Amino acid sequence: MSASWKQLFFQILLLLISCRHINTKTPGPTSPPLDPISPLPTLERSYVLKGVSHTERVELLNPVNLSLMCTWAGNQNKPSNITGFWRKDGEEIENSRVTVQLENEQYNLKQKFSIVSEENLGSYSCVFGGEAKIDFDLAAPQIGDVRDKPIVSYVGDSVVMTCKMEENKPKPNTWNWYMANDTGKEQIFPAAEPQRYEIKNDGWKTKLLVYNLTEADSGLFYCGAVYPISTTMSHVELKVISFYEPLKPFIAIVVEVIVLVAAILLYERSQSKKDYTAAGNGPGDQTNSLTPGENNALEESSSMRQRKV
Which of 8, 29, 177, 184 could make an SS bond with 188 (beta carbons 3.0 to 4.6 A apart)? Predict the structure, then answer.
């Protein structure tokens, strides 16, 4: 092989080797950068206690970092420092005990809590030396309109149950309805078969319509106002009765009257028989009821008949 051919062969070989390292794949779209997780907003609540106890209600809608500040004016002795700690639903929070110094004739106790779900709601208490405390009750807005008396309807009829939130409170994201059963609550879905339920939500108000009622529908129904942090509940009691149910007291009264009248008639009839017998009007007592003059006349008449014979 000549030198020119050898040189050409090496050039082709180098070209093939270099082509193997070239990336021929089409590049895909570039992944967008992930948005940084936004921190929870911070909410502060504080209270100045002058007595020995107080309960402060805190309504929450969304997850927050909640900063609670407690201030106590102290007792008459006012020691230079006391022990303070926090409780959650009556149980002391671990590692929450601190020494609180007396500053400006008062004691201050502060703590931050991450409230991210319904499990974090409840009662948070700051306690000063076991002598005084402030309770912060954390909850979603509560339904104020609660019906005490049950709704009464009839078998085969329809009924409308209503729940509403006060309009001065935040509007719920949506509403849900539940029916009580043996295990707790079962959510009602209007599209489920048979289509006996209809839910109408209107801002601060919700309605549940139930058609073709049966006695099995009697029980508790729960309405739930849904907020991002939690669902607040209320209930409505339904009682389904048959059409003759209201007549039962009237029927019982009629039966009692009939029995009483029958007893009176039987008693009067019995007394009449006794009076009739006592008057001597019975068939065996006719001779015994004659007077002495009548008896003498009968005897004389009998003797005259015997003489004629």
Answer: 177
Q: Is the CB of residue 209 less than 8 Å from the CB of residue 163?
A: no
My answer on whether omega of the bond before 194 falls inside 30° of 0, hence cis, is: yes
Residue 115 phi, psi (nearest 5): -105, 95
> Cα–Cα distance between 151 and 74 in angstroms, integer?
52
Question: What are the Cα distances from residue 242, in Å, to 138, 153, 208, 218, 239?
Answer: 44, 9, 21, 12, 10
**Bridge partners, residue 98, by sequence:** 84
d(CA 198, CA 178) in angstroms, rounded, equals 12
Cα gap 177→173, rounded to integer Å: 14
pTM above 0.70, yes or no: no
3-state secondary structure 209-224: EECCCCHHHCEEEEEE
